[in-house]
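Hi everyone,

Forwarding the result from last night's run.
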Amino acid sequence: MNREPKIEFIKSNRNKDQIVVDNKYLYNFYSSDKKGNKSYRCTSYKTINKCKSTIKLNSSNKIISYNHEHNHIISDKKAPRAKAKSEIKNKLQKVNNPLTIKAKNIYEESTNNLGLNIPEYSSLRSIINRNINMLNFKIKGYF
């Protein structure tokens, strides 16, 4: 029985497009064609395993083709961590005054609706603080 996989769009560390499929698999943007179709590859395609799993979406983000044959062990923490990081960055971009931000509050607001596989606060604390510091530097005009 073939069912439509659940896909969510997030941003990577370098602000590139990524897809999380079924809260397990993480895909990076690979290419697009003249029709507006976008291709994504599994993030393990450059590792020793050379995973061949791909997903192709049309311009309205509907799945055209999906090769879901992975040749590596699926990490239960990789995709939820990427989703949490992306959600935290989105929350921080919407904040008006970054000088009054508490890292713990941002973590709690961002991870409320992410599900069961939420990374612990201690593993995301440095990421949150780094992003808060970047916002403070931008306000002060350092870059």
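Helices lie at 78-93, 103-111, 121-140.

Cheers,
N.
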